[in-house]
Request: fold
Amino acid sequence: MTRRARMIAGGIALVVALYGAMLSFNRPARIHPFFESLPEDRPVVIAHRGGADLWPENTLLAFQGAADLGAHVLEMDVHQTADGVPVVIHDETVDRTTNAAGRVIDFTLAQLRELDAAYRFSPHDAPGSFPLRGTGITVPTLREVFEAFPDAHMIVEVKEEDTALADAVLRLVSEFNRVDRTLLASFSHETLVHFRTRNPDVATHASEPEATRFLIASWLFSAGMISPEYEALLVPPRVGPLPVLTGRFLQAADNRRLFVAGWTINDLSPMRIFARRGIGGLITDRPDLALQVAAELR
Reply:
């Protein structure tokens, strides 16, 4: 073999070795049990706050209503009380949803239970009416939700960047043996990293910087270079003027074995558009409509 031939052969061997190393370091997302029993032939219907347009959001009534409809996943938000109890409520304050005012963290659990969690709920088909005031609907604890729906798939979003709250949620997930049926969410990158570090078995979604990095990589046809530390992308349909849930983005996510759900999609037309593109899930305040779309595609 001539020197030139040896150099060419050596160069080819080096390229093959580098490519093999690249493949070994750039792994797709793991297949988490959370997704294994969810539908694959139609969009997964994720009841946002239990279905906030149909029932008082983040209440046991809402979660029961969504479950009775046949929603595949219940989505909820968690804050903590003054005595450190994880409770299911979206806002930092109780003002928007109850008959009181103030920060959730300034109420003890006993004080929070005195509030009417349906006080400001007005049905989408009867705006201006408040039919569930005074009917005993309260802010539930996360423990109560886990107890009431032991087999339900849930997305639990921790709204505070607080390791004590994150650890309390992880303890409940472990206590109720819910690792295979719970996806932990947060807008805080640090909280998501904390979840993954403290319990590597839990499923999480991409944080905003992680999702942004993946979106840009999909534009550049380089998403295959990303090794996700997460299992899902929960994203809005667009960010400002930029569309997110494009066919290219969905295909790139599928190639990395990532589940994609869009939020918050409440109208039939966009539901059908994204469903036809092959979106994994619809996060919606109208699980009734989303189930209709899912049935059309089944």
